[in-house]
Model the fold of this input.
Amino acid sequence: MQSPNCYRASPNETRALSGFLPNRAKFMIHSRFGSYIICSHFRERSRESLINNDHVKFLSAFVRKPILTGAIAPSSRWLGRRMTENMGLERAETVVELGPGTGPFTRAILEVINRKALFLAVEINPEFASKLTAQFPQVVVINDSAEKLEQYLAQYQRAKADSILCGLPWAGFPRDLQDRLLSAVLKSLRPGGKFATFAYCHGLLLPPGQRFRRLLKDNFARVETTRVVWRNMPPAFVYRCER
Done:
């Protein structure tokens, strides 16, 4: 029998969570892609505010399109801080974020970015892109694939980006998509420019995650990994690369 705190959804639709979830409650998602137990960070709140919560929207997007979304929850503010460290954002004139999702890294970037810089955010999910546009009017949000980054930089009269920060789920991508996306990054980043992306610790056990690590080392002059951010769900670390 299904537990009262068990949430059952198909890949094509997500039911609104009914009732209330206590703080740190655990609930489970069942789909043909597998079962997931999630620790909720929601406090008790109205059904409407729960449905509008970023965590629920992210979870809904994951159930519908797990490969493109790549995670069951938005990245934490602690991972956002780690992503923006030592990226030269204070001096950068052109900053790009790929796969901003619901905006956790966007917020972190805006805290340190040069206010005169051009900030482009490329998001393939139209619902996320619309939310980002409304929430961050100072950011140029583009609803398209990151593969077209070079085209959009040219559209805004920029030859290259100084810094590119990326929230894309590399370990969930097949080989050809990894290659195309990384090629777009390399073509769009100036010599000496910096690229940051994160990886979940468990992703290093997967062949795509291991292959992506090798791709970074083969294509960047310098690649370093940060300490693990244990407060993120799941725990993650950052690759910080220099062209």
Summary: The chain has two domains: 6-66, 77-242. Residues 69 and 103 are 13 Å apart (CA to CA). The chain has nine helices and ten strands.
